[in-house]
Amino acid sequence: MQTGRRAWLCELSTVDSAFLLAGALTAALYFDASSADESEIRTLGDALYRRANWQWAQNQGDTVTHGWKPESGFLNYRWEGYDEALLLYVLGLGSPTHPLPESSYAAWAATYRWEHCYGQEYLYAGPLFTHQLSHVWIDFRGIRDAFMRDKGIDYFENSRRATYVQQQYAIDNPLGFKDYGHHCWGITASEGPGPDSIKINGIERQFFDYVGRGVPYGPDDGTLAPWALVASLPFAPEIVLPALDYCVHQAKLTEFNSYGFKASFNPSHPGAPGNPYGWWVSPWHFGLNQGPIILMIENYRTGLLWQLTRKCQCIVDGLRRAGFTGGWL
């Protein structure tokens, strides 16, 4: 963070860059005073965004690649299927310098999967976080692209439905994991207690490390992520708040922590001997989890980030180029 240089041998991630740029643009909108410091924030935020070359990140394909490494070039994967790249495409389409073509958004949306699960019809993505992260910055209430106009809902309603699918999956608990239910749910890409295999109540259970856990098709090893509950607060507070109450007062997931919830927990896994919970709890906090907690609580309380980014011309332009109409647009 001091130099901006590459960490370890990581890739240049297109979606993580989108999160960074969305944060920079939002900060530039928030710090609107005429002082030299706040003027510099606005100048730097705008400059960072203008430098991003979204066309390069396509690597001559229809959709955007996941990233690039100097040793091997572009990664083989592309952003396809509904996921957190909604924000990436909006920012790319709205760029005043190196914009994505409108055809790239159409190519991405062409890979969507509309499904019926647990009484809900919705645009499918398995991990809960994929229904949240773009919504941290953009207010999708009442605005629709061509796909959502055809379905008669918006992306905010879609995330509400996905949140209810998560709860109903936990109530149904098809794999029989401990404590799943009305107030204990939240399956997303997260760290876990594995790799491990333990026989519990006569059943051989496989536990994973970090994987893209999802609903309803898995993988699911009993690991839940309380941060993903909080990030669904704006969509369905009526079921999120009771679940958070369970995490705090019954599961006591904040009792031994200085910074709120740990990354994940698994009531079906006993954890290391002597751990104070009686089940496995991640030893870690991750910034990628903590950010959405704070920001989505604020969106639930006041809508502050949504109010700011409604005034961001590049986001407005990106939404319109993606075909969004209606509502606050």
Task: Provide a descriptive summary of the structure in words.
This protein is mainly alpha-helical and 329 residues long. It has 2 domains: 1-112; 113-306, Alpha/alpha barrel (Glycosyltransferase), CATH 1.50.10.140. Helix content is 40%, strand content 10%. The chain is built from 13 helices and 11 strands. It has helices spanning 14-30, 36-51, 54-58, 85-93, 102-109, 133-137, 146-151, 155-172, 226-230, 237-250, 287-301, 304-309, 313-321, and strands at 12-13, 67-69, 73-74, 114-117, 120-123, 189-190, 196-200, 203-207, 211-212, 265-266, 280-281. The chain has a 3-stranded antiparallel β-sheet with strand order 1-2-3. A two-stranded antiparallel ribbon has the order 4-5. α4 crosses α13 (313-321).
Task: Please provide a brief summary of the model.
The chain is mainly alpha-helical.
CATH third-tier fold name of the largest domain: Glycosyltransferase
* Annotated CATH architecture of the largest domain: Alpha/alpha barrel
Can you summarize the main beta sheet? 3 strands, antiparallel
> What is the average per-residue confidence, as pLDDT, rounded to a whole number?
95
| Number of structurally distinct domains | 2
Kindly state the percentage of residues in helix: 40-55%
Order of strands, widest sheet: 1-2-3
Which properties best describe this structure?
329 residues; mainly alpha; Glycosyltransferase; two-stranded antiparallel sheet; 13 helices; 11 strands; 40% helix; globular
